[in-house]
Design goal:
The chain is α+β, with helices and mostly antiparallel strands. Helices cover about 25% and strands about 30% of the residues. It has seven helices and twelve strands. It has helices at about 10, 35-45, 95-110, 165, 175, 185-205, 205-215, and strands at about 25-30, 50-60, 75-85, 115-120, 120-125, 130-140, 145-155, 225-230, 230-240, 245-250, 255-260, 265. It is globular and about 60 Å long. The termini are far apart. The chain binds biotin (BTN). Biotin (BTN) binds next to helix 2, strand 3, strand 6 and strand 7.
């Protein structure tokens, strides 16, 4: 089987058995600019909840904060889910955290020890980036109309295959596991886990997601972080994740900052 075939509809249909991401909504492209961009277009054209767009490679993969996402063909996972949750806008950011939990569980189930989540959207191993999540939303009034949740996961090959600036900060599952994984199996397992967490979140709220996220984040309460938000930079100690999904940081003056959107960097 060629590498690309792992992800085709024919290979994936038998694996798409959990209901929310059924065969009818599975779209595979060999090359696309960005699965998030394509999923957004499909959602605008009326594609239903549970559609998932998967590409073997991307020519214009997008990361958070306007960055690009290196997307060589044949080795990694690049996919975007169309979700149409009945959610008030302030709860949409929780979907990124939920996705992180499903992703961390999925790589752990594949045998990879030591996966760690970094708020809000990074999956790390040994301080290096293993995966990332990009959630983009269109709203109708105070509620989300649809949310596109895109995931990039470094599966096979070596991080040295990425552009030089990315290579030194990245890691692949294969480098940690010492073997390649079947991308179709990893994707199907992720979708299955995501579905479980998504239903749990809608039915029971954010508490279980938060507890699981904290387990993978392993915040020590003393970890020095630099937080970049729209209103500037703050340094402090990452303490906790609050019940709304905000990162709680203790500033130097003892005050607690709750960060809803932004980026953190660990300080050594
Ligand atoms: C980040 O860590 O900055 C988020 C990276 C998200 C990358 C994925 S790859 C599939 C999907 N399509 C995109 O263009 N981006 C996301």
């Amino acid at each position: 089987m060629s590498r690309c075939e792992e992800l085709t509809r024919a290979s994936m249909i038998p694996r798409l058995t959990n209901g929310m991401f059924g065969p009818e909504g599975y779209r595979f492209e060999e090359v696309v600019d960005s699965t998030n961009r394509m999923a957004m277009t499909l959602a605008q054209e009326g594609a239903p909840h549970g559609t998932v767009v998967v590409a073997d490679g991307q020519t214009g993969g997008r990361g958070r904060l306007g960055r690009s996402w290196a997307s060589p063909p044949g080795v990694n996972l690049y996919f975007s889910m169309i979700l149409k949750p009945e959610l008030p806008l302030e709860r949409v950011a929780m979907l990124t955290l939920l996705t992180g939990v499903a992703l961390a569980e999925c790589v752990t189930a594949a045998g990879l020890d030591g996966a760690r989540l970094k708020w809000p959207n990074d999956l790390l191993h040994g301080g290096r980036k293993l995966g990332g999540i990009l959630a983009e939303m269109t709203a109708r009034g105070e509620r989300a109309r649809y949310v596109i949740v895109g995931v990039g996961l470094n599966v096979n090959g070596r991080a040295t295959g990425f552009p030089a600036d990315v290579a030194q900060r990245a890691v692949t599952m294969a480098e940690v596991l010492g073997r390649d994984s079947n991308r179709g199996e990893v994707l199907a397992d992720f979708l299955h886990r995501f579905t479980g967490w998504y239903r749990c979140f809608l039915e029971e709220g954010f508490a279980s997601v938060r507890a699981e996220w904290l387990g993978y984040a392993r915040l020590t309460g003393g970890e020095r972080v630099r937080v970049t938000t729209e209103s500037g930079e703050v340094t402090g100690e990452a303490l906790d994740l609050d019940e709304r999904g905000c990162l709680m940081v203790r500033r130097g003056d003892g005050g607690i900052l709750r960060v809803m959107t932004g980026e953190i960097n660990f300080e050594r």
